[in-house]
Amino acid sequence: MAAGLAVAPVSGELRGAARQAGTSQEVQLGVANAANSTPSIASDGKQVIVAWGATSRDSQTDVMIALSNDGGTTFGAPVRVNSDGGGARLTGEAPPRAVLGRSLPSGREITVLWTAREGAGTSIKLARSADGGRTFAAVMPLVSGAAGARGWPALAVDQAGNAHAIWLDHRGMVPSTGDAASHAHGPEATAPGTKDSSIAAQKSGLYYASSRAAAARAVQGREIAKGVCYCCKTALAVRDNRLYAAWRHVYPGNLRDMAFTTSSNGGRTFAAPVRVSHDGWEIDGCPDDGPAIAVDARRAVRMVWPTVIPGASPRGAIFYASSTDGRTFTRRVQVPTLGSLKPSHPTLALDAHGRVVVTWDELVNGRRIVAARLGTIGSAGTITFGPHEILNEQGNGLYPVVTTSGDTTIVAWTTGGSDSVINVRRITLRP
Question: With 70 as the cut, is the pLDDT of residue 195 above it?
């Protein structure tokens, strides 16, 4: 195995403070002399892993992880995952993804997924550690050599240790600039003379691959849906060898609604996509804001996503819906936010009691606020949201991500800017 590169954290000290919703503790993670951003987070019991990108002053980006063994109270020194220094291609909607897997004799298995530069285009790469993140094996490409741009991946690992990934792929739009971040967002996304961007979107697909295929060097991926929205994050979960995937889709009339599919056989086949909700948001461009999902022990799917409520005064909103069969979803329920015109970037997790924790960021009075709420599921499947908790009263918070450890909620976000760090806060939310 190639040794990981360990670097000193920006800060390892906690700053505790009493909050209206209970106790709260905060720690900062990062690499010195770099912009630290694009976090993701995952947990299993008391172990918590945070992955993010560290971009140097010469614009080279590495994938970093830090591991906690005490529920996010303290973290070890960051470790670099990618062996090709500076080769990562990350955004807030396309962060590196990390999963804590099986316990092995040498330590906890950790799997990390990210988008990487590859010539004039991009690839999807995977790296695994068998010793709790101290070192990582050689990087494994899930797609390599395919033309065009791709990214916005999501990752899940099943009980047997097989890694599963989905991503958005634009090989059908070749010739391409090869730069995922510069892919068409606005009217240019529509083919000349075409008023309905759902036609042009047929050239972009949702792709799937597994570590099994990568080990067999079948590294092109497999398309499981056409017509995806171009630059919104995807979501993937696994439960009992079943896969659950969500993404933003382009429906006729330039409507950008959520789509969902399942695989009951570990990714060999996927069901026809279903539309989660008819939101009526017509936009000829990509919102750069995708869904998040979690699946509970009874295989009930919990989902949140951002959209716009149309009308004389359109307003952004975050909605929640659930499904017990993977084919039909409940009527959407609006998540109470802070009252701005555009709450953004929602994520969610389930706590030890099956309650739903939702986080998001929102521009309020010139400050980018990170907030969270706890949702309790009733006997009829309805959800009731508790009071909100503001996690960064000073503002300047972007792209929050959330996980839980027992009854404790752990949220990570980036502060933004050229010297940004990853803030990680432990909180106890009230129902």
Answer: no
* Burial classification of residue 200, based on how many CB atoms lie within 10 Å of its CB (0-12 exposed, 13-18 middle, 19 or more buried): buried
Residue 236 · residue 155 · CB < 8 Å? yes
d(CA 173, CA 319): 31
* Amino acid identity, position 290: G
pLDDT tier, 220 (very low <50, low <70, confident <90, very high otherwise): confident
Which distant-in-sequence residues (6+ apart) come within 8 Å of 188 by Cβ? none
Q: pLDDT by residue (tens digit) across 245-302? A: 999 999 999 999 999 999 999 999 999 999 999 999 998 888 999 999 999 999 999 9
User: What six digits make up the tokens of 390?
Assistant: 């503001």
Q: How far apart are CA 199 and CA 160, in angstroms?
A: 39
Buried b (16+ CB within 10 A) or exposed e, 219-258: bbbbebbbbbbbbbbbbbbbbeebbbbbbbbbbeebbbbb
